[in-house]
Amino acid sequence: MNPDRIEQQRIAEGLEEPVEEAANLAEKFGLDPFPVSYWIIDYDDMNELIAYGGFQTRYPHWRWGMQYDRQQKQGQFMGGKAFEIVNNDNPAHAFLQESNDLADQKAVITHVEAHSDFFKNNEWFGLFANNPDAAAMLERHAETIQEYMEDPDIDREAVEAWIDHVLCLEDNIDQHRAFVPAEARGDGEDVEAEMVDEKLDELDLSDEVRDQVFDQEWLDAQEGDEEVRFPAEPETDVLAFLRNHGKAYDEDAEKAVEMTEWQRDVLEILRKEAYYFAPQKMTKVMNEGWAAYWESKMMTDEAFAADDEFLSYADHMAAVLGSPGLNPYKLGLQLWNYVENTTNRREVVEKLLRVEGVTWRNFEDTVDLDHVRDLLEPEPWLVDVVGHLDELDPDDSRVDAAALERAHDGEIDVESYPWKVLTYEGLCERHYSLVKPAFRGFLKRISQSELERIARYLFDTDRYDSVAAAVADIDRAAGWDRMREIRESHNDVTFLDEFLTQEFVDDNDYFTYEYTHTTRDYRVTSADYRDVKKKLMLRFTNFGKPTVAVEDGNYENRNELLLAHQYNGVILDIQQARQTLERVFQLWGRPVNLKTIVKEVDEHDVEVARRRDREPEPEEVGKLLRYDGEEFSIEDLPWDAVEGIAATDIDYDTKPDEWLA
């Protein structure tokens, strides 16, 4: 047997218990993941899988080699370390790098269980398929494209070039709708994109035949002044529109021709894959934060990392959370902690406001929150299960009676896994967030406005005669229950919109910065949560890419394509826009246009503003970018031509109505 395979088998056998117990602990915590299959692979295989997006087989293309090279150099020269990769599938497949130590492997396993729970239960992943067989789908796609490349009647380079054209637009789909085949999507109106003259030209009819078949009066009627526009409403699934209405540009004939079967097929394959991967891009902060949260709970709070593994695990977590730039792991973890703490705080305050004599006006004067926090501390036997095992009451709702009996019979290793004899309710109290050292001051930071808001919706019933009685009735599971509810329906944009508050910004030291013309460098500009929120959400709306929609497939009655950039205050990179239009031209076959809005600043205004130590006011101007296959041009547009694409108040609420109940 191959020595490498023997080593991988040895590692796999040593991980059987951690894999089994991590799944058991995840279930105890209230998670419901897909079953996970774990694979032990070497360093090169890990880099290859990361390049392939977590799957072993992808369609042939140079992009994978480029991503592999980037990943390998990151490990060699930048100190990056690949801990794991897991894909959204049922069962999920997770890959562990054989060179990682046991602490890293355990961290990865607990992290993966939480990811798999997110994949299974987040509604955005359900838009593609509730039970995806993604590995099989991607393998079929790879085989299909490989067959096209090997077909002697098809130029392999033409297939690769076609893929390049489509990939330039892979994020221009309607990620807020369920995937349906492109041909099943309607464009709002049953209108032909091509004009009659073009159809007649394609038939190559002589003038004599044209005159005999089509009288001049009828032809003149078809060439009326009325402009034919479609789709009826802007189409955000640009790939579907091009699949249904686009043409390929024939370089030799120098004209648009019908797409071949392989071209439409490849376009649809890449579109389908874009829909599959879209939920992962839409929920990066939520998903990584969710996995980091539960990994920490298992590895640290439940001591899944043994004493001799803890320092190695702490180094692992520090590397993950300490990555520079906008770190989705760190931001996500901070937001999930904030959701848990605010939910638990509201539950506590609601109970305390029902104590006789306590109102939102006298709350601070009549309630000793330090005493309340002491009362919230978990009972000693929940903190030290092993030392109080004989004292556990099997009739207590926080105790798993069946597991306790097995523990007494020696069938459960309570020293290693004390959580096994507790129920979900017991674990909620054991890990109650408001008594954790990192959050001990959270309860006392309740504001008067928040107290008033909570009191406004309380009914004058279920009064308590003491603070102790109120605390005894607090639901310790409220935080975790609320976290699972949010996990089901939100994406990154709605998550940030709802939970990024001024309190969160102040606690975690977030701020915005901008390039200033006066100082010619970047400066902190605001710590207001609205500014921070807007900037962060712009990073995640449409995966941080410009939102572009098809506005007209018959622009100015010339069969030209008109795209509209949904301007949100961030201007396009004109050079990148130009390169994109060149690609789109290959998929439309005729001239393509893009209207957008840019900010222009007069140099004189810049100098005046600099002398006055303030920023110049830029002017927003409409622009039309056009590429006809040979030349690229830019012209000004009147404001009324672009007014409809200027966002006055960006709508970040992208959850379907039925998820908002």
Major beta sheet, specifics? 5 strands, mixed
> Quaternary status of these chains?
single chain
Number of helical segments with 4 or more residues = 30
- Number-wise, the strands total 12
Strand percent estimate: 5-15%
Average pLDDT rating:
86
User: What low-confidence regions span 5 or more consecutive residues with pLDDT below 50?
Assistant: 188-196, 209-215
Strand order of the largest sheet: 8-9-10-11-12
Overall 3D form: globular
Assign the structural class, choosing from mainly alpha, mainly beta, alpha/beta, alpha+beta, or little secondary structure.
alpha+beta
Distance between the termini: 57 Å
Give the fraction of residues assigned to helices.
40-55%
Please state the CA-atom Rg, rounded to the nearest Å.
30 Å
Explain how this protein is built.
- It is a single chain.
- Among the domains are: 3-136 and 282-321, no CATH class; 328-489, no CATH class; 500-540, no CATH class.
- It is globular.
- 49% of the residues lie in helices and 11% in strands.
- The strands form four sheets. A five-stranded mixed β-sheet has the order 8-9-10-11-12.
- It contains 30 helices and twelve strands.
- The longest helix has 25 residues, at 328-352.
- The model is unreliable at 188-196 and 209-215 (pLDDT under 50).
